[in-house]
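Class prep. Sample record?

___
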Amino acid sequence: MADVFLLIVRWAHAIAAVAWVGGGIFYWVVLRPALRTEGVPPAVARFAGTEFGGLVALSAWTLVITGAVLVFARLSEPAADVPYAAVLAVKIALSGWMFFLISGRRRRRTPPDGAPRGRLRAAADALGHVNMTVVLGIVVFGLSDVLRLLIERNL
């Protein structure tokens, strides 16, 4: 029964990751350029932004919950060694950066001119929230494959 539960958790984790990163790629490559043209009504742009924001929020919460379950399940196995834990720590840190980017974007609207910003927020703004989220998401996907290879090597 535990194997079925972990299979469902892994599936939900993977679907949420694909939805977030795939949605980000779609937004970056297709939707954002289309919205910048004058042929798209403002109501459509608002609707698309709201729906995409909802997808990202649902995906982020799903990833946090399922990720916590998967971390505890995997680290309790004897095959999880120090290199596995190191790569996992990098993956978690990059995922945290992605969550920081989206949470800051959702809380913050355009700050008034001259409003103080922290160094971390200024750096995140300079890199661009959607672009950086997509790049980080692709790197996190790659780290997932590295983690799988490390576990399989130790089985």
